[in-house]
Amino acid sequence: MKRFGQILRELWRDPMGRIGMLGIFLVILMAVFAPQLSHFGPEKMVGLPKAPPSSEFWFGTDNYGRDIFSRILYGARVSLQVGIIAVGIAATAGYVLGLIAGYFEGWVDRVIMCVMDIFFAFPSILLAIFISAVLGRGLVNTMIAIGIVNIPVFARTVRASVISAKGLEYVQNAKSVGVRTGAILIRHISPNVVAPFTVQATLALSSAILTEASMSFLGLGIQPPDPSWGSMLSEARTFMEQAPWMAVFPALFIIVTILLFNILGDSLRDVLDPKLKL
């Protein structure tokens, strides 16, 4: 397993990896320093409704006279928070379930993977909407819903890696000398899971951000007046002809952020497993 510093150096040498790292770093800075970078509060009505982009309002104002640039900055906080926590929930649960299913196999594997297949039978956005409807609207419930939806992806990824690693000679030797199951899983099998698991986590972040935007667009995610890129798009639907900038800028940030995470995920995959590189 490569060290963290070596992975960063190899990512930086890859042009696409460099673009992904720099781009995501800028998005994180934008979210962290939103109060310092924004001209106005995200909920304050500071100008005329639907004012076009200008030197005062860089991205224009929305139908309530709120600064779109400020709302996008604060919306980045929401998107990253939802993405990181939702993926954290999915990764933790999926890792444990995949480790158990892949190592013990038998009826345990069949039961766990049967439940995961049931989750896979539903489109992710519809399942997230259903869970959110049951739990209720709001930021916390949105993160939980998106986290639950992404559990099967991690469980399958970890399970496949565990099954592959379980047949390695040094794992079999550890079993033959009586090493405990917990020690085998932690010391011998887990290192083989890290690479695909990390790549999947990176790619899942973009999926989580898109799902949050979709749910907020439908009114089931982040609730107004809290800024969210998806809810900003929802509000802009009625004013597409009068004020197209209301939809253009939130959509642009959604697309670019998701693209950056996908670029980083692809580059990270090539670094961690060069055999996959075409």
TrEMBL record:
Listed InterPro entries: BP-dependent_transpt_permease, MetI-like, MetI-like_sf, OppC_N
UniProt KW keywords: Cell membrane, Membrane, Transmembrane, Transmembrane helix, Transport
Source superkingdom: Bacteria
SUPFAM superfamilies: MetI-like
Coiled coil location: none
Keyword Transport applies: yes
UniProt-annotated location(s): Cell membrane
Membrane protein topology class: Multi-pass membrane protein
Any one biological process term the GO annotation gives: transmembrane transport
Residue ranges of the TM segments: 21-40, 80-104, 111-133, 139-158, 242-265
GO cellular component, one term: plasma membrane
Keyword DNA damage: no
Location of the ABC transmembrane type-1 domain: 76-265
Family of this protein: Belongs to the binding-protein-dependent transport system permease family.
Protein known as: Dipeptide transport system permease protein DppC
Organism: Intestinimonas butyriciproducens
